[in-house]
Structures are given as C-alpha cells and as structure tokens.
Amino acid sequence: MGSPDSAVLVEMTGVTKRYAGVTALDRVDFAVRPGEAVCLAGENGSGKSTLIKILSGVEQPSEGAIRIGGEQMRGLNPRRAASAGVMVIFQDFSLFPNLSVAENIAFASELAEHRRFFNRRAARETARKVLDRIGVDIPLDARLEQLPVAHKQLVAICRALACEARLIIMDEPTTALTEREVRRLLGIIRLLKDEGVAVVFVSHKLAEVLEVSEKVVVLRNGRKVAEGPATEFNASSLTRHMTGREVAEASPGPFNGAGETLLTVEKLDKPGAFRNVSFEMRRGEVLGITGLLGSGRTSLAKALFGLVAPASGRITLDGADVPLGDPVAAAHARIGYVPEDRLTEGLFLTQSILRNVAVGRLDSHERRGFLDMTGLVGEAADWLARLKVKTPSIAAPVTSLSGGNQQRVALARWLSRAPKLLILNGPSVGVDVGSKAEIHDIIRDLGAQGLGVIVISDDLPELLATCHRILVMRGGEMVDEIEGGSITEDDLSHKLAS
Amino acid sequence: MSGGPRTEAKLTETPEFRLAIIAVAVFVLMAALSPDRFLSPQNLTSMAFQFPEFAILALAMTITMMTGGIDLSVVGVANLSAVIAATILTAFAGAGMVGGAAIMWLMIAIVAALTVGAVAGFLNGILVSRFGLPPILATLGSGLVFTGLAVAMTGGSAVMGFPAVVAVIGNSTIFHVPVPLILFALLAFGLHVLLTRTGFGLRVTMYGANPLAALFAAIDVDRILLKVYVIAGMFSSVAGLVIMSRANSAKADYGSSYLLLAVLIAVLGGVNPYGGYGRVIGVVLAVLSMQFLSSGLNMLQVSNFARELIWGGLLLLVMVINVTNWAGLRPRRAPAKAG
Amino acid sequence: MTSLLTRNETLVAVVIVLFCILAAVSDPNFLTVTTLSDLLRASIVLGIFAIGAMLVLISGGIDVSFTAVAVSAMYMTTKFSLAFWPEMPWYLIFTLSVLLGAGLGAINGLFIAGFGLPTLIVTLGTLSVFRGFLLTFVGSDRISALPPDMREFSRMVIARGTTEGGDFYNLPWSLAALVVVVGLTAFILHKTMLGRSIFAIGGSVESARRIGINVRQTQFFVYVYVGALAGLAGILHGSMNRMADPFSLVGLELSVIAAVVLGGARLIGGYGTITGTLLGVALIVLVQNSLIVIGIPSTWQSVTIGALILLGTGLPAYQAKRAAARAG
Amino acid sequence: QDAPTIATVVKIAGIQWFNRMEEGVNQYAADTGANAFQVGPAQADPQQQAALIEDMIAQGVDALAVVPMSPEALEPVLGRAMEQGIVVITHEAASQQNTMYDIEAFVNEDFGANLMEQMAQCMGGEGEYAVFVGSLTSQTHNQWVDGAIAHQEANYPNMTLVGDKNETFDDAQQAYEAAQEVMRAFPNVRGMQGSASTDVAGIGLAVEERGMEDATCVFGTSLPSIAGQYLETGAVDGIGFWDPSVAGYAMNKVAQMVMNGEEVTDGMDLGLEGYENVTLDGKVIYGQAWVNVNADNMADYPF
Ligand SMILES: Nc1ncnc2c1ncn2[C@@H]1O[C@H](COP(=O)(O)OP(=O)(O)OP(=O)(O)O)[C@@H](O)[C@H]1O
Ligand SMILES: Nc1ncnc2c1ncn2[C@@H]1O[C@H](COP(=O)(O)OP(=O)(O)OP(=O)(O)O)[C@@H](O)[C@H]1O
Ligand SMILES: [Mg+2]
Ligand SMILES: [Mg+2]
Fold first, then answer.
1. Phi/psi of residue A452, each to 5°?
2. Higher pLDDT residue, B268 or C167?
3. Which of A169, A486, B113, D145 could form a disulfide with A200 if both were Cys (CB 3.0 to 4.6 A apart)?
4. Closest-CA distance of chain C to residue B2, Å
C-alpha cells in the first residue's frame, strides 16, 4: 500500500457505453479504495446500473479502461470480475429460486474456484461460515423461493462474501426492504467496511446514502456531474446535482375531515395474513398504510382489490358491498390498484406504452365488442400527457421508459378509469427524487379531486408528504392510527419498530 | 391496419415481411421449375382446395399460442365433431335425401359439430384456467379423450352415406372460388379483426404478454382463456366439417398428421409460442408457403419425406433470420426476479 | 415447495398403487413376476427418453425431437453396420449410435445455445428435419435382418426362467442400460457443478449468466447429452425389437414429456427429480400395458389414457393453484 | 399417340410392401413404355393421400392406380378425377364407389379364414386364441379378422376367442407389448393371429422370449423380410400375403385396358400369377393371389 495508486482497488477511466442510439455512460472516471463505501446517485436512466454492469463484466465498455487491483482488465467477464474480488448484488438479487440457501450462497465461489464436482456438505459449510460472519440465521436447506425478500437479500450478500469479495456492489439494495431491515443492512455494510471490504451502492433514498457512505458520485445523463466526500453533501444539494434543479417537497393540505364516507372495511380476516381489520375512509382522503415486512399490508391491499380472498369480513364502497376475492368486480366498483412490482405485476413490458394504458379502458371504448381506436388512443395519449410521461412515441414498448415514467404509465392506466378509490402500493419504489416529488404531487392532487387514495409504503417521508392519516399494521393487525400532520419522521419510525 | 396500437417497427423489418418474401420466392421457384403445370388453373384451384382444412387448424393453434398456450387437441376435436355430425347425417338423412330436408339436416349437423367444438374447447379452457393445468398437458390429454370418444362411437370405422348436399362445404366453388377457401378466408379475416379490432383481442394479447399483469389489470383472465379455447375448439370443428365433406365420411383418424403441421405453420407464421405476439397475415403467408412447396414438390415427384425435411428446414431458417430482430421471444418468466 | 414436490411424487405413487389394486382385483394373475418383468422391460426405452426429457425441462427448455434423434441414430447405425461391417460387435454398434445421437443433439444445441433460439421451435424443426432426412436419404425399409450381434444382444438376459408357480420372467441386459443412465444422470445432476448449473439456468438464466455460469456451454451439453441418451434408447429399441423400423418411436415425444411432468418436473424449468420421473414413466407404462387385464375394451383405451393424464397432472396442478391462492 | 401417364398412389411411401409394388409398376413401365410411376404420402394419413391425388389430377395424369388408405375418404377426390376423364383403378378397396375397377388379390374374409384354417390345424382345433389389428380404423384388417372369427365359429366350436381386437398401431413394439399383455391376461392362449405386417414380428418376439415357440400357433399377414427370423425359430408358424408387385402391375394393366376401351370379364385371364381366372363382382376383380409362407418356402420370396 505504498503509492496512492496501489491503494485504489478498482478504477475506471474514461468509460463510455453506447447502446444503439443511447449513450448510457459518457467518459466517466470512477475509483474505489479498500474499505470505502461509495454511493452512486442519479435520476432514473442516468447510467448507474450501466456503470455497475461494466464494473462487473456483464457489459463491455465501448471505450475506456478498467483496472482492478492495479491490473488492466481487458474483456472483463463476470467470472473474471468475481475472481478479482468484484461482486455485484443486482437489484433483483439474481438468485436461484429453485435452489437451496446453501447452494445459492456457495455456488458463485465454487464456480470461481473452477470446481468440477459439487459437494453438498462443503457448500453448507461455506454458507454456514458467511452467515455466521454477518451474524444471521437462515435455514440452509430452505428453498430460496420460500424466503421473504429481506432474507433473499441477505443471501445475496452472503454469496458475495463467500467469494471473498473485496468490492461489493449493490444496485438499489434497499428498495424492497422496510426501515428495520435497512438498518440491519447498513449495519452489515459498516461491518464489511471494517473488514476492509469496499462497498459501492446505488440508492434513491438519500438519507441512508449520506449515512453510510464516505464518498458520493452523482451521475446525470451518463455524465459524472459531482463527486466528493459524503459530508460535503446534504439531501437538497444532492437532489440539485441529480436533477439539475431544486425539488421542493410539499406536504398534504389539511384534510377537513368532512366529506362522505367512501370506504368501510369491517372485520376483514384472512388467517395467516391479516386479522380483524376494520377502518373507514372518506372522499378526498389520502390514507397511508405502513408496517414492517410481512405485517400484512400487501395482503390487505390485494384483498381490497379482490386479488386475495379474505375468509370473512365486508368491504363497502360508497354504500355498496364490494364482492370479495374478485378483481374484476372490484375494478367494476371503481377500485384501482397499482402493484408494487412494476416489472412483473404492473406492466406489460413488451407491449406499447399506449396499450399499457389503454388496457384499463377497453370496456368503455367497446361498441359491441369492437374498439373505438381513435377514442382509445386519444384518451390514453391525453392521460400520458397529463402525467407528463416523457417518450418520443406512445407506440414504443414500455421497456424503453425510465422507472419513473413506467410508474406514471401504470398510474395513467388506473386514473383513466376514473376510480373512486386508488390503492398505490409503493408508488415511488425505484423512482428517483425528481420523479418521486412529481408523483407525490399527483397523489396529493388526486386527493384534492375527491378520490380516496391509499398509499402503502415504508418510505416514511413519502407517507408524511402525501397522507392525511396513517394506519400502522403489525403482525396482521391494525395497531395504530396517526394523523398526518401530527407526527415527525422519527416518531413514526419509533412507532413502527416498537 | 393503421390506427391500431402497433408496437412493431417498420414494415420491412417485420417477420411477416420476410415471410412474404419467402412465400413469393417459393412460388416463383416452383413456377420456374415447371411453369406449365404449376401455373395451370387446374393446379391453382387444386391447391386452394387442399390447404384450408389444415390452415383452419393452424388458426385455432394461433389463438391459443397468443395466450402462451397451445392446443394439441385440435385434430381430436375436428374428428369428434365430424363423427357426430356424420352420425346425425347418416342416421336421419341418409345418402338418398335431397332438397330442403337434406339442407335442414346439414344445418342441424353443422350446429351439432360447432357445439361439440365449443364444448370441447370449454373443457380445455376449464382445465387450463380453473384447474391450472399446463395447456400442453391439458390438451394432450383431452385430445386423446376426444379421439378416443370418436373411436368408441364408431368402433373405429368410417361413418358415411351423406346426402349429396354435404359435398358443398368441401368440394364446390362459388364464382370459381372453392368453398373451403372462402371459409378459411372468412375465419382468417374474422380472427384478424378479433385480434386487432376488439377489446377481447387486445386482452388476449396482453394476457399472453404478461398473465400476472393481466390479473392485476383486472382482466377477467379465466373468461379470456375460456373464450380462447372455445374459439379454438369451434375453429377445429369447422376444419372437421371441411374434412368430413371433402372425405365424404368421418373417421377418428383423419388428418392425424395435421397436428404438428398446424403448430409448425403457426410458429413459422411468426406467432410467439410464449404468447403476446402473432398476426393472422403471417399465418396465412406461412400456409401459402407450405402449400406452394408441397404441391410444387409433388409435381417434381420429389419424395414426400423430403417435404418434411424442407418444412423443418424452412422453420429453422426463418427463425435464424428472425432471431436478431425478435427480442420479445423469451420464455414467459418474470424478468429474473429472486422469487 | 419441497412439500408440494414430494406430494407430487407421492401422489403418482398412490395412483400407481391404486391402479395395481384395481388390476389385481380384476385379475389375480396380475400380481406376478411376469407382470413385473414385462413392465420393467417396457420401461427401458421410455425411461431413458424420460430422463433425457427431464434434463431438458430442468434446464428450462423443452425437446420434442429426441424420438427423431433416436430413430435416426438407430437406423443409420444399423444401415452402416449392415453395409460395412455386419460382424460389428454390439458394444461398438451401441457406441456408434450414441455418438450419432450426440451429434444430432449437437445440432439442436447449436441452434439453441448458439443462435439463442427458443427450444420448442428448434426441436419442432429438427424433428421434421431429422425424420425427413432419414426417410429421404437413408432409407425407409423396415430392416429385420439386423447385424447378428445386435440380435445376440437382445437375447442376452440377466435372469430368465419360470418360477415354481409357473410364472415366466425375463430380465434383459438392456435393463442395465437404464440403471447406468439413471446413475450417471443422478451423478451429473447432483455431484457436479455442471449438473447444478443445469438447475441454475433452469431457475434463472439471467442470474446464471451474472454469476459467471457459461450458459451456452451448459445448454449445449444438455442437448448433446440428451441426444446421446436418445441414440442409446434408439439402438436399444431396435435391438430389443429385433427390427430397425424407421417409422417407429416418432410420435411418442409428447407422452414422454407428459410422464415427466406427471413426475413433478415443471415446464418453466428448474424442477425435476429422477425418482419422480421414473414414477411417471412407471404409471404410463403400467396403464398402457394393463388395460386388457382390467378389462377396458380396446375402443375405450385412448379415452382412459387421456383421462389418466388429465387426472395425474390435474390434481397436483389444482392443488398448487389452491395453495397459491391461499398464500395470496 | 403419346405414352400414357399412369400414377400409382399408395398409402404410404417407402415401406417394403409398397417398394415391392413399385417394382411391379416399374416393370410395367419397362414392358409397355408407359409413363408409369408410383408416389405416396410421407405419413399414413388419408388426408395427405387425398391431397397427393389432387396434385396428380392437377398435373394431368391419364390414369390413377390408387391403394386407398381409407376408401371413404377418397370418394370425392376420385370422383373429381373421373369427372375429368381420368381412369381410376383401385386396390384393396372393394367398397370403393368412385372407381372403374377395384382389384382384390382375394376376398378379404376368405383370406382371413385361410389364416384361421392354418391356425386351427396347428392348434388341433381347440384352445384360446387372440387377434390383432394394426388399427381399429383399418377396414381390411378388420375384414380379415372378422372372416377368421366367422370361420372359427362355423368350423371349430372348441376354439374360443379371448379379449377384444388388440390394436398395435402398425408398430412392432406395440404388438410385442400387446402380445405380452394377452399372454399375461390369458395364460392359456395358444393361438395368435396378426394383421399388420409388423404384428407377427412383435408377437413372435414375445413368444420367443417366453420360450413358447412350440406351445403356440402364430399366424398373420406379413412379409418374409419382416417375419423371416421368427419363421426360422418357429415363433411364428406361418404368414400369408399377396405379392404387391403383381397387384401393382395388374392395376396399371387394367388401367391401360380401360383406356384402350377393353372390358374385363368374369373368368378372364389377366396374364398375371394369381389372376389367371379372375372373378368379376360388379366393379371388383377378385384374384386368387394369396401366398402362404412358412419356414420351408420362405426362401422363394425374397422381399
Ligand atoms: N440494453 C440496453 N439497450 C439500450 N439502452 C439501454 C440498455 N440498458 C440501458 N439502456 C439505457 O441506458 C441509459 C442508462 O440506463 P441505466 O439502467 O444505467 O439507468 P439507471 O441509472 O440504473 O436508472 P434506474 O434508476 O431507473 O435504475 C438509459 O437511458 C437506458 O434506457
Ligand atoms: N395464507 C397464508 N398462510 C400463511 N401465511 C400467509 C398467508 N398469506 C400471507 N401470509 C404471510 O403473512 C404475512 C403478511 O403477508 P403480506 O404479503 O401481506 O406482508 P406485507 O407486509 O404486506 O409485505 P410487503 O412488505 O411486501 O408489503 C407474510 O409473512 C406472508 O408470508
Ligand atoms: Mg438501475
Ligand atoms: Mg409355434
């Protein structure tokens, strides 16, 4: 560790990546030292994931050079990157649902050792060791698909550690986690830093970014626009660098509490998921529902939209009963649901943006089965414009959009149906600060227009910025009810964890 | 076609365009190899009589593939419908009957066949949507059941002795256009309109593209699937009626080679077997290419086994050409989610 | 999902037992070594096919061309031997057929791993191509004058005789082939990184690629291996029937896949066990060879088999669906 | 005048049986200078055969000699052929309406009875027997078997048929498995009669494996090239067939006669072995062209 150069673990110089028509990265320099935590920040589509893919050998740069441990890497591929100590935890974790926990953890390291034969006992041993190292306990023989998300993430981290990673890169590691698990993750990151492992991570949650990282690198449109020690940034300066403008987060206007009752939920019960849930909400109210992972929020939301059939209970909307367990009937009663997982549940990725919106409005543009195309296209285009979806063509597949814009497309589908009640599950998951603020604007606006909006989220600032009232779930039960204006973020997080 | 929500690129880059080139190329090649025989009106009419029966089965296959499914029972349904129609015709009408009564019984038989097709399709739909069977197994099993029922009803022999009017469906022409061709054209056009112009068609496409998202979009997934298989069943029974008329009889094993052919044609026609993409025009072009090839090769007295070889080769060739442009063709799997 | 998988296998086992009870009730002669040895023999070729089909399903693909591979390898080998070396020893004949099968499998592998084409379409195409090529250029005669050593092999038995009760039994050596294939495949799947990689790419191709599994190489191996198995099954079929029939085998592919799925493998990839697969084969073979015993008229046999496939796959599928609905 | 074009369309291309028929067709072409050739579909599917005939009509052949896969299915297309003045001759299709002459090597029921007679002799006129057909949908197979059963019922009261008609799908493996199952279900079965050419091969294998060559009597339609090895060991006791090359020759010859305006009459000699004294029944020409082959005379029939 004599010269400053050799202290650099990984270094990228002048890296450019071009996809057909898009320059995803434009002459970016980037370096990481051992034991350092670097945060990559930037709006959706600014090139963060691309940078990570290049570092880990998944993609080849169009121009530029990469050095790992001082050695120039040409034609880097995932296997070589791994043996050089660079491991990635992708946004989707890239684990194997059909394999056991032990195998998921040990697979990559055994591969890196060029093993030919597989030894179950050795794999368990490896897995046991790393799990112990970060002090967690997950059944080694469980099939991965049976684990909750937070455990999957831990498995992904363990896999990286098993490979004796010197640099662990995490792409949006906290999006699927609740507050408490984020805490634990950050704790683990500190632990790793102490052991000399470097960490690069991408996150849209600015507070946590600043909390653990030493260095922040901000990308915008594929260019590096800022770089410096974390202490030199605060949330608003970071936001300014990312978006190139000021983003002010408003708060929900006061809710006068008047208005007629829109929704009543009575004694809704689903063994194993939620128990005896009752609440009411009024027109124009934005209601937050929060809770830890597995607290039953998602099941409850799905039950409201008929995707989960409760064992007993009653849902009334505007005085009329909503049939339980029937999404078509729920949609007919004008309930809308924007799911938390855009890519698999929310959108038809290979289909056009237009179709993704239009599919919500087919019934009203159907005359004896035939579609009134002009009407349909006109209306969808109108909604896309109202939600400011940025796209060169609404005939382009929805995959061509950035995360924030994809979320708007999902929103547009349900808004075009003029719902009475809109349930948004994680409305800003994986959405950058700029877009997030705009989506929050939209939510507040919807409330003001007299819709009932339920926001399910564990992003506390988000709840505070949008909700008039927040319900807290724990272990499947409603345990608390908080008036939006009456609480600070710290208090809320205490209530959650208690 | 314009105005519809289209996601495809320029016309010249579509798989259908390449297929059109292939169809034309095959036609020109065959015409060049034996101009007087291949281009004779005789031969052209003959070809037009030949392909509709399996082309209709390919249409049935197409709509199920649009949902990411498959219907391996099409031939079974066709034969069962035909056997039931034929039983009605022989039992109540008989070979000698003419005039209005014969036409009436033909109508009754047609309705019965279509009903059989609808019921069989409904059964497939229930198995796939309610019971969650993989379509490939559901329809493989039900196909055996349908064929088996036809065997059991007839003891395996042919049912024959129809009124002469039955021949109209498969063997006659209207203004020199073969009736089976007209039937096929109507069904193809109908399916095209259904898929591109109706809410149902769009829902089918969307379901095929992402079944889970369809559920979350409050599409009545079970109903859609049910309808798709019912349509496939009814198309199959139309094919069964055409076969019955052309064979002047019905039997449990007619057209047994059409099953793989129908799959082959649909796939060659650019239908994504994992769902979400498929256009009737592509299927029509695939059918034409197949028929030109097949009749042309018969003309040249090329072994019929070679025809199989060439069909398979053509499929592979088209796929290799398409592969660079056909990114959407991936197994239906959540985009690498850990769960 | 472990519990569900075991349930799938147990379910098949239960159906098998029920069916046996039914058969034993309608014919007391059913429960004899004769039945057992006949059924074992009928499971050899189907079993080898099924193991191959299972491997492909685990890797996330589907192969419908293996019957054409089998029949081509078998027929070409026979023709070759008759033309150039009629005295060719049986083990060389078998080796040649396995190699030919592997070669044809490599063609599948080339299109699938090389060009990245969807497996169903490729194998549908090669099914026609292989069979068309065989019948056009190699020959279409049924050959019953096999090379003497092939006939000799079919006469080689592990055990053969009559029990004291007068029940005949016959265990041919070809059964050993199935045992070897099962052992080898189990070893590859569970004890080698290659085998685990097959499971991994079936679970998620993208993830596999990202941790540095050579997906193409793994896929290529799968199709070559399956081709080799098909070549083996084909030559066994030919030798056991003492006839090289170029029209046989093709048409079995979907039933084989049905048997594998019956045994718990999933069409989406990543799941499948050898035990389950063998149970699935056992059920299909049992049903196909016992309908006369049970007294089902031959006109109703196809209905019965179809209904059994629906039942056998329907029950677990329905259970899985219900379980998923319960979990929300 | 040009040489006439005569297309012989068979059930399926490539198998020995029709290869042998093609020899007859080619012989006819060589003998007369006619443009006679043979084609057949790649798969045993009546619809494919119909399509093939359509193509032949479109090509403008002068005569069609057809061995229908399924006679009923070909009525319309053969009708169209005749409307266009094409001469149509069929074989193995006594029920065919749209044909000018149908040539039968023999009366099917008689042929079946002939096989049964040999089997009954072999069994000493008593015991259980089973019958096999290629498919339940095959008319000729069913006629043979029905003729055999009728003959047994009339003449051998001590013999009993066990089980249904067993279906073998023209596949030796399936015939083998069916035979095994029959022997398990009916341990006392002594006679087995096959119909498809692969049937006796499968049955013979099952018999040989169980070492029951001498205890059983196996007869059926087949060719020496397929059943030969079992005839040698005695697992199969005898086979019957007719020579397809002669049938192919005869079809072409009769087609030419029709084109020449000649008539076929009862008792006529077609100048071909087995067809020296044909019976004319309506449009059906019956020969006496069956051949019974056993281990002793199989060398005379090298196909
Ligand atoms: N395979 C590809 N082909 C074409 N363009 C691509 C491809 N991958 C990424 N891009 C484009 O490159 C740009 C950068 O994408 P990248 O995924 O790196 O963004 P990101 O910063 O990770 O965004 P997010 O926060 O939404 O994850 C985007 O414009 C994207 O559309
Ligand atoms: N039918 C059931 N039987 C047993 N457990 C169930 C059942 N349905 C749900 N659960 C469990 O109940 C808990 C609540 O599930 P749910 O998905 O609603 O949690 P959540 O808090 O909404 O999750 P997220 O953080 O993803 O929003 C989870 O642990 C889930 O696994
Ligand atoms: Mg990203
Ligand atoms: Mg004998």
1. -95, 130
2. B268
3. A169
4. 30
* Residue type at position B333: R
Residue D58: which of B183, B296, B51, B306 has the closest Cα?
B296
* Per-residue model confidence (pLDDT) at position B317: 87
Closest listed residue to residue C276, CA positions, set C1, C8, C4, C46: C8
Q: pLDDT band for position A450 (50/70/90)?
A: confident
CB contact under 8 A, B198 and A94: no
Judged by CB atoms closer than 8 Å, whether chains meet at A96 and C271 is answered as no
Domains and CATH numbers, chain C: 4-319 (1.10.3470)
Chain B residues lying within 8 Å of A365, measured CB to CB: 199
Q: A24 CB under 6 A from ligand 1?
A: yes
Going by C-alpha positions, the residue among A173, A340, A344 that lies closest to residue B335 is A344
Q: Which of C42, C151, C246 sits opposite D177 (nearest CB)?
A: C42
Per-residue pLDDT of chain D (303 residues; tens, 9 = 90+): 578 999 999 998 888 888 889 999 999 999 999 999 999 988 778 888 998 999 899 888 999 999 998 888 898 899 989 999 999 999 988 889 999 999 999 999 999 999 999 999 999 999 999 999 988 878 889 999 999 999 999 999 999 999 889 988 888 888 999 999 999 889 899 999 999 989 999 999 999 988 899 999 999 999 998 899 999 999 999 999 999 999 999 999 999 999 999 989 999 999 998 899 999 999 999 998 899 999 999 888 888
Rounded to the nearest angstrom, the distance between the alpha carbon of A456 and the centre of ligand 2 is 14
Query: Which has the closest alpha carbon to C279: C37, C91, C39, C27?
Result: C39
What residues does each domain of chain A span? 10-243, 261-497
According to DSSP, residue C64 is labeled -
Averaged pLDDT, B178-191:
96
Q: Which of A46, A221, A390, A439 to mutate to test the pocket of ligand 1 (most atoms within 8 A of CB)?
A: A46
Question: Tell me: the pLDDT tens digits for A234-250?
Answer: 877 888 888 776 666 66
The chains found to touch B (3+ Cβ pairs under 8 angstroms) are A, C, D
Domains annotated for chain B, with CATH where assigned, are: 48-323 (1.10.3470)
> Mind listing the pLDDT tens digit for each residue in D119-147?
999 999 999 999 999 888 788 899 999 99
Q: What is the DSSP string of B246-277?
A: HHTEE-TTTTTTHHHHHHHHHHHTT--TTSS-
CB A420 within 8 A of CB A446: no
E strands present in chain D: 5-9, 35-39, 63-66, 87-91, 101-104, 127-133, 159-167, 189-194, 217-221, 238-242, 279-281, 284-286, 290-293
Say yes or no for a CB contact (<8 Å) between D55 and B298.
Answer: yes
- The full DSSP string for B104-149 is HHHHHHHHHHHHHHHHHHHHHHHHHHTS---HHHHHHHHHHHHHHH
Which of D26, D38, D47, D82 is most worth mutating to test chain B (most B CB atoms within 10 A of its CB)? D47
Contacts of B144 (CB under 8 A, 6+ apart): B76, C302, C303, C305, C306, C309
Nearest Cβ partner for C144 among D187, D209, D226 = D226
Atom of ligand 2 nearest to the CA of A178: 25
Bridge partner residues of D167 (DSSP): D133
Pick the CATH number of A10-243 from 3.10.120.10, 3.40.50.300, 3.30.1700.10, 3.40.47.10: 3.40.50.300
Chain C nearest-CA residue for D136: C299
ipTM of the complex: 0.83
Give this prediction's pTM: 0.85
Chains D and A touch (3+ CB pairs under 8 A): no
Asked if the A261-497 domain carries CATH number 3.40.50.2300, the reply is no
Ligand nearest to C-alpha A433: 1
pLDDT of residue C48: 97
d(CA D43, CA B44): 24
pLDDT value of residue B129: 93
